[in-house]
Design a protein that fits this description.
This protein has 322 residues and is an alpha/beta fold. The protein is built from 11 helices and 14 strands. It is globular, with a radius of gyration of 20 Å. The two termini are 36 Å apart.
């Protein structure tokens, strides 16, 4: 999602200034997804090493009826709300089944990208002409608060794709507590979690043999060049991924391949890089079922049911407020 407004550009610039002025340096993964970044991520999801999308799609495809029943979707009219819907590929499996069962619901994708919402709406209108769709653009919590005042229907909120893995422990707790504050007791929350497994399987997913993940990370430097007038040479940086099984976290970095100085016109500032100095790019936390339960309980929820793929690589966890 490209930042086009002045406010958005200023926020991007401020975040880049803060990250590259820190020790150690970092850049926010939320800026990965310009047009090229989104295209590259679609490629990543098709890679043989990238099991996450395949595992969640397996859950949705093979346990659709069970998910429908656990949602209580055959009752009164409800809103199916998706936070950061992306291309909607997995959600479309649920929508298709729900419509076949004559469930009465409105699909509500929420995203900060108007372009992403437009693409998704066109796609779903073409495939599901009778589906009621109400797009909401903006911050999740602010939008949900507004939406709560506009609709008294039951809410089933989807947060898929293991996006929660990009949050630290306290961030995840605060995020879910914020969702709990805008949910009623009969609402439900459905979250995708990548589970702990063979570290080599995880590491390959973040450092694929064909180098698409490296290209995805390096694309953020190209975006900074284009939008902020920087002079990064992506060839002077290399992608490095690691996985620490004790803390259960995958991390990615860009490593400066030499001593160099980078200028960013929009910041009127230069940044010095030592040879092999890292820029921290992203964390992806991996969970076990006990961690998921602890997080649910600490955030004001309890687990209604967990849905796992055949290899137990991934879990979609259904939570209810308490």
């Amino acid at each position: 999602m490209q930042t086009s407004s002045a406010t958005g550009t200023n926020t991007f610039a401020d975040d880049v200034r803060r990250g590259l002025s820190s020790a150690p340096k970092f850049l926010s993964s939320k800026y990965f997804y310009d047009d090229e970044g989104s295209r590259l991520f679609q490629e990543i999801m098709k890679l043989p090493e990238y099991y996450l999308t395949k595992s969640e799609f397996e859950i949705f495809s093979t346990q659709t009826k069970q998910i429908y029943e656990a949602f209580g979707a055959s009752g009164a009219e409800f809103d199916l709300i998706e936070l950061g819907a992306g291309d909607g590929a997995k959600t479309s499996v649920l929508v298709d089944y729900f419509l076949e069962q004559n469930a009465v619901f409105t699909y509500v994708p929420i995203d900060i990208s108007e372009e992403a919402l437009h693409f998704l709406t066109e796609k779903f209108h073409a495939r599901f002409p009778n589906l009621s769709i109400q797009t909401e653009r903006g911050d999740y919590f602010r939008t949900l608060e507004t939406f709560q005042s506009k609709s008294d229907r039951r809410k089933i909120i989807l947060f898929l794709g293991s996006n929660i893995g990009n949050f630290g422990r306290q961030q995840a707790h605060d995020f879910f507590a914020g969702l709990r504050a805008v949910m009623n007791e009969n609402d439900r929350l459905f979250i995708g979690f990548d589970l702990q497994k063979d570290p080599r399987v995880i590491l390959r997913a973040y450092d694929d043999a064909s180098g698409v993940t490296a290209e995805f990370n390096l694309n953020l430097l190209t975006r900074i060049n284009r939008e902020l007038g920087a002079d990064f040479n992506p060839a002077d940086f290399s992608h490095y991924a690691s996985y620490h099984p004790i803390e259960g976290a995958a991390r990615s970095f860009l490593m400066s391949r030499k001593t160099q100085t980078v200028s960013i016109k929009a910041l009127n500032k230069t940044f010095e890089f030592a040879a092999w100095e890292p820029i921290f790019m992203e964390i992806s936390q991996k969970y076990n079922l006990a961690m998921i339960e602890d997080l649910a309980n600490a955030s004001g929820f309890q687990i209604a049911e967990n849905f796992l793929d055949g290899k137990h690589f991934y879990a979609d966890s259904l939570w209810k407020p308490v």
